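User: For a benchmark we're assembling, each entry needs the component sequences followed by a predicted structure for the full assembly. Here are entry 17's components. Please fill in the structure.
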Amino acid sequence: MTEEIIIAGFGGQGVLSMGKILAYSGIMQNMEVSWMPSYGPEMRGGTANVTVILSDERISSPILNVYDTAIILNQQSLDKFEPKVKPGGLLLFDNNGITRYPVRKDIQVCVIEATAEAVRMGSGRVFNMMVLGGFLKLKPVLEIENVLKGLQKSLPPRHHHLIPMNEQAIRRGMELVKPFTVAS
Amino acid sequence: MGEIRLMKGNEAIAEAAIRAGCDAYFGYPITPQSEVLEYLMAEKPHERTGMVVLQAESEVAAINMVYGAACTGKKVMTSSSSPGISLMQEGISYIAGAELPCLIVNVVRGGPGLGTIQPSQADYFQATKGGGHGDYRLIVLAPSSVQEMADFVKLAFDLAFKYRNPAMILSDGVIGQMMEKIELFEPIPRVNEFDQSWVTTGKTPDRQRNIITSLNLDPYLQEEHNHHLQEKYARMRREDVRYEAIACDDADYLFVAYGSSARICQKAVQLARKKGIKAGLLRPITLFPFPEKILGDLSQSVKGMLAVEMSAGQMVEDVRLAVNGKIPVEHFGRFGGVVHSPEEVLEALEEKIVKPVV
Amino acid sequence: MNLEEIIREENIVYRRTPLLTDKALSYCPGCGHGTTHRLIMEVIEEMGIQSDVIGIAPVGCSVLAYEFMDIDMIEAAHGRAPAVATGIKRTWPGKYVFTYQGDGDLAAIGTSETIHCCNRGENITIIFINNGIYGMTGGQMAPTTIPGMKSSTSPFGRDTAMMGYPLKITELIAQLPGTYYVSRQSVHTPASVRKAKKAIRKAFENQKLNKGVSFVEVVSNCNSGWKMTPVQANKWLEENMLAYFPPGDLKVDGQLVEQGKTS
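Assistant: Structure for entry 17:
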């Protein structure tokens, strides 16, 4: 099994850390992993994306042109990466701020209203964990206990008390995610 | 089994340095490799092993601090990225001339000039052909994974001390910035015995004074010294060429690529084979000494080679020399900070090699 | 009285320190480098620290200093000696490390290394030979060439409007918290040689205290570069160089010395 994922959005949305948790979780599941960020002078507010590859085999290129899954958190990233999902692949997006919606019919398109839910819950910090939950619901490539172990690994000990909240968010994300009907 | 971690390439270099028994690191921040110094400062290696870490005022100072510590037999290193490595060239030439062991890491970014902070492989000439003034070579290792970023720190020190010659890890922004699963090697204790035949640790009554210099005002002596250096480089060519051959046995066409380009080409090999094109990959691990012989041998069995590098074509010259006109050798690469995709690389193979050759 | 009777221990009033090698000095007769070499080697001999000393030679006339000093030595790139010294001292804090640098080396091409080494408070000794000229390359203008002084690249005298001012780097580094002892000396008279030796001794002794850089400037002559006889050069030094670069301590035990006061 090899899963090639791009996660893209604004800096500050937790794009890189979501990727990191995925990668750590992959290690917990004895998989090979790679995590390749776009890097640049922008620290916050600019676009950020990260390519995460989970595989049972040695990983070849950490940089890809097409992906099994695109996890999209803003309009620019949707515009950029929708064409780069492999036929039959998955496009998961948060609909906050989206005005031009996905159009492809040869891929699975799903939506998660994670931003809205995080606002309702009054906790923006776990927004990305909801999205991660949504992804895992659609593609159960990782066991949930390995994800929790991955969280433990990627969070510094002083944040370990937040793990139950993160787990809740992952589970909430699994409930929230739903298919998106592409307009014909 | 060693400790498993998820690490950035730059962090792996730093952790490996501590574990390899490195005595000192001197460096200056520059993107995309600042994590090396940041990691070292945060890890307090002084408490772990006694390793010294110091932020210098410039790359010029950093390489000269390396020179000083290396004169005393210490295992010492620095790291930087392209513009910083250019600044270090004076010091590297002196270190090579004075025959001192040390490790220099270059996490290459796009140039020339201030260029870009994005990945590049355009410092190949500088790394493998000398870089500074005079006839000298560095031992150049090209890691293509985070695992190799760590492992090559140890290897580079071993080779540097074997030959009393500076060694370079030539990496790039991709390998430096990405995270992968790695298995860390067990720590090696720092060495406390020094070869008194050459180190400048203070002249004791039982030996002559040791002088470390790259100066020979007498040109005949300097020529003799240069002959000695060339013999050393010839020995490296005989004893320490390293490469990895992937799917070469039945290959009709070969990618030749190092570092992150080799990873991209590995994917391109898979894509090619799915399309029925028998492609293989020869990945030089030592860029100096360059794996000329295997490329010469492979030129008997493959129909053409494509050197893939994030430059306008540098390593391709060495591939052509190795192949010596027997088969077509072409170059493909995005550059100036742009990274080619596996699809682009495969397309280039088809356009530049497969179609013209068939 | 025959020769054997004359050369007896009790009759010896001067001997060359064994820490100077037998190699004949390559410096011009009358040059201050030889005297300063001797003073440093005498101090090292008297302190009994030969096996713990590492010296760093610069680029300039004293590029071959290691030929004359019977200690472990390193030849540094032009201006980089303080960085080289830093690399050694940080990895060998128990050793005595010193640099020996000329004005072009220390105050022009190596200004950055000098200032940052001093500012970090590296626990080393810097001996700075200031003769106001590039001696080795044939008498070009140095950062310390004084106003009006002729050199091969200021043939009509240093014009400060065009060429800028001489750099009083010793005054500059005395202001830095990383320097512990800063002194300016000369070696043009027997009395000044004795004083200079005291300063050099202090600069080496200070390394035991681990308090920062000890820096001794030696204002020296360059009779060849100045196109004078040794005697004329020493006179010119006293009248002109010392007027611009007044001798004395600038900083002792980490405290700035009031101007005009000498130790």
